[in-house]
Amino acid sequence: MDIKEILKQVRDHTLSVEEADAALKSYGFDEMGYAKLDVDRKARTGFAEVIYCSGKADEHLLHIFGRLLEEQGEVLGTRASAHQYELIRREYPQVQYDPLSRILKIEKPDKALEGMIAVCTAGTADISVAEEAAQTAEFFGTKAERIYDVGVSGIHRLLSRTELIQKANCVVAVAGMEGALASVLGGLVSRPVIAVPTSVGYGANFGGMAALLTMINSCANGISVVNIDNGYGAGYIATQINRLAVKGV
């Protein structure tokens, strides 16, 4: 029930002032005791609330998933385990699960994808994070072109796809090891580059810290950096940029 409806019911004497006060105090979120679902988020930001599945109790995840599905007609979950998929599938057989990206989702049918972003990886070991970025963007209505295994150890592979990458409204560069891919892409394109360091690498990579520091210290312009392995964050920001480009802002 939105604010106008609450006020209308107070005017018509079908809702008491005390009841209206209680409704307004919880307006914009659904109180579940263990969670407060931000059901107003899409109206405020253009993006519905997403579930971070890892660490959630089975009962909590099941109820949150069902409530968001009821409210939104679709729902996206990140970092879901195979066990959590089976848990949700028993209640919602239409749910889809990708074990590589660990994305758990129910989407509205025939979703139109607009614009285009390019999601690039340095190596195949980075694809799990890249898929989280690409599938997040697609869930939010953005077309994602996947350009995988184009790292700087064989830079001719990247250069063979330059024309397609340059057409993208935004580029997501996913790389572990030393994280050099983002700097190279930053020097090739006129659009924003979102760098995603991954935890892929040997000991001195320090679980992605080496790639993160390389990306933060890049001499190329137009590069922003998200947290280590944060494909979801990159896909979200890429969609924001893509929407602006589609609108011609």
Reconstruct the topology from this structure.
Elements: H1 3-11, H2 17-25, E1 30-31, E2 36-37, H3 41-45, E3 51-52, H4 58-72, E4 75-78, H5 82-91, E5 96-98, E6 103-106, E7 114-121, H6 127-139, E8 142-147, H7 155-159, H8 162-166, E9 171-175, H9 181-186, E10 193-197, H10 209-216, E11 223-225, H11 231-247
Helix pairs in contact: 1-2, 4-5, 6-11
Pfam families: AIRC
Protein name: Nickel pincer cofactor biosynthesis protein LarB
GO molecular function, one term: hydrolase activity
Describe what you observe in this structure:
The protein is of the alpha/beta class. It is 41% helix and 18% strand. It is elongated, with a radius of gyration of 21 Å. Residues 115-247 form the PurE domain. InterPro entries: P2CMN_synthase_LarB, PurE_dom. This is Nickel pincer cofactor biosynthesis protein LarB. One of its GO terms (molecular function) is hydrolase activity.
